[in-house]
Amino acid sequence: MCNLYSNTIPATAMRQLFDVAVERDRLGNAVPLPAIYPKHLAPVVRKGDEGKRELVPLSWGFRTTKKSKKTGAIIQPGAWNNARDDKVRSNGLWKQSFEERRCLVPASSFCEAQGRNPATYHWFALKGDEDRPPFAFAGLWQNSRYQGEEGPEEVVTYTVITTTANELVKPIHPQRMPVILKPQDYEQWMDGNADDAFELLEPFNSNEMQIVRSGEGEKSDPAGRLP
What is the pTM of this model? Predict the structure, then answer.
């Protein structure tokens, strides 16, 4: 389960990596994001109204109405930041987005916690010539409509798909890890049919990944450097 990741990729590099024309970059003054949590805004690559890719800031986590178990009153909405690969074709929260609104979620690294009180945080990245080569999670997006504390609300959101943990992640998080897509698969994910896209939902090769940082309380870097 992924609840924390980073994206410190410059906007110019994201446009090049994900084949987005400069006029379709909607990020504005994008800044490095060393720690992205559920309900935070972060860059997403999706297909716009004309079917062309665009870079947009969306909020992490599909929203749904949430009620207090004690009082039944509407409280802050739930944020579904992960979608299981084995549920995306059957679960009503994910199904239509999987068929019609797939996206790429640019990232530099992601974090998984191990243990409690205190937890140890492990940051995973890809191997490569760079310190932390950029990559993309397989994602979905939607316009979430729900009941908030003050009445009906809506926000454009995204979620990250997870799959079975590979051999590197498994000792830290035994069950799940985010789906990381290879660049040659971006087009199939964005433009292929549901069957084509589903074929890509598998663990990333552990030999091509590394743990780049571990420690208690290592959830972000106070100096602003990449986790």
Answer: 0.93
